[in-house]
What we know:
By secondary structure, the chain is mainly β. The protein has five helices and 41 strands. The strands form nine sheets. It has a 22-stranded antiparallel β-barrel. A five-stranded mixed β-sheet has the order 1-8-9-5-6. The N and C termini lie close together (11 Å). Mean pLDDT is 90; it is low at 1-38.
Amino acid sequence: MARAPRSRSARAARVGAGFAVACGHALGQTPPPSPAQLPGVVVTATRTEAAPFDIPASIDRIGGDGIRDAHLQVNISESLGGVPGLLARDRQNYAQDVQISVRGFGARSTFGIRGVRLYVDGIPATLPDGQGQISNVDLGTAERIEVLRGPFSALYGNSSGGVIQVFTEEGRGPPTIGGSVAAGSWDTQREALRTSGSNGGFGWVVGASEFKTDGYRDHSAAERRLGNAKLTWQADADDRYTLVVNSVALPKAQDPLGLSRAQFDADPRSVDPSAIQFDTRKTVDQTQLGVTWERRLTATQSLRAMIYDGHRNTQQFQAIPVAAQASPLHPGGVIVLGRDYSGVDVRWAWSTRIDDRPFELVAGLAYDKLDEHRQGYQNFVGPTLGVQGALRRDEDNHVSNTDPYAQGSWNFAPRWTLHAGVRHSSVRFESVDHYIVGPNPDDSGSVRYVATLPVAGLLYAATERVHLYATAGRGFETPTLNELAYRPNGQTGLNLGLQAATSKSVEIGAKWRDGAGATASAALFETHTDHEIVTLTNTGGRATFQNAGATRRRGLETQWASDWGRAWHAELAYTWLDATYRDAFKTCNSTPCPAPNLSVASGNRIPGIARDALYGAIGWLPATGWRAGAEGRALGRVFVNDVNSDAAAGYATVAANLAYVARLGAWTLNAFGRIDNLFDRRYAGSVIVNEGNARYFEPAPARAWSIGGTAMLALP
């Protein structure tokens, strides 16, 4: 369906919308919102519809245009560059996931996403242990992305340094059908099909895509297939049902590993010889579904129930030397995971008046469960390397959380609104060991982490155009199963002695809008964390962890966006983040490590975090005709380890794009061309924190081109 022209008032409503401006509505068209859905409305912070301008929190909304315009739509990092406080880095390694951190939380993750809660259409993409992945998101059918930062993130439970929610479009209006193709450097290609529409009370959006690339680096080829369907049914005036079915298959994802400083400086496209020797790679297949029932009980009360279930298989080949696996206690160099996950979230909402002032309350219960069958095998058979060999580990791991929560808001005076909430989180880990062979003992065990997380925020409407706020809260972060997976010094079983990290956060901020298309915001924040989970050892694909002392993350986030003239849009976002260890501790620089032998000084920077990040974009974006845009990103240096002995240098890059959109009868056609890293800068796009072989650096691509086109047909 053709996209409706964006009115000035609609643009102004996208308060704080940190989308990466580009041009061309590449690889998919977004239907116009229904009259009942206000542009800029978000649900992440309050669990009820509200404008970001009226919430005492840092929250951004990236619309479908920002997600798809002149992008390949392969990685979620493509459209998150304009969100202050969030660092999303494409690692050019599809055997891992996009590296995402929010206000410094999640930066230490060597694979997957942790420290940040992820949701897709309300279904958790973060498991109960706090580990998440976002590879199952179909950007071609996404309607919006919401990003919440700061204290209110704790109301989503374990590992809430921030919350990222992706929402699929709703099926609305006449049926549409279409397809898209895109191609780019290094034999990159993506094809997609989609259809959407509605008939009476029934709506649908269905999309499928396939992505292939040879990769910028040697040994980095990948293939990925995605399918996503969202069906809605308005049964009557009070009942609404939503079914979401999603699948992702990663039949091929070579792992080029990181590079040492010498390797990176000599040839950023190269790989360490061990990656070729052991054919390091990963395969994944995942299928999940979720059902949501929404019921209006009365004019002021409603009920929402969501249930989901999914399964994920993973096989990963690591570059662990044969000699290191000689010990009968070594778990091997091949990881095989079978994961079944499920959960339910039931909430009740009430809207009323107290002292003749608006009051809203949401109360609910979330239960999530993960059953994991983890096996380890040697990565060799005789002289043949990179194949699955003898069994060396076999266990069942179970994680569950039971979290009641409540949050509400009260506009107790004409200019004052109080927001508050609490969540009680109980997370239980249990391991049942089935590999009890020779000196390998029974390593079964269990541990429980419990925390109560209060949050409160106050919003003051200084004027119609200026809102001020202050927020404070507590959070916590348990170890993930991957962080518990190994004990130090070659011991077997889960490292159940790890404690959960606890934090206290405060934030003050201001939001401004001029009513004519311009918005701005600024936020100061500080978070103190105790029992920070840090690396103890990290060699041969095995990382062990320990609790350090206190850390501090403090920073400033600023953002400005403006629309003017007939179709101009510009925006800026800047983040200053000072993240340091406040207590000294010791770590290991070798394996085995009888006792930590390397000192990390108080005041050292937390690795994986840039102190400065700047984003800017400008675009000419008419509804039809020629479009053009440019964006720039700059990032400060990033330390690669706790001792701060080396760092990835800071960098600045520029991207440019050109597009054309035409409407010919029932057809909507568009095409785009894009160049990233226009000036061909050499830099490390991401780092592997505390990598034991000093292979810290993951090179970003050189200058890269991409082109794409879409054809959408509105059916009668």
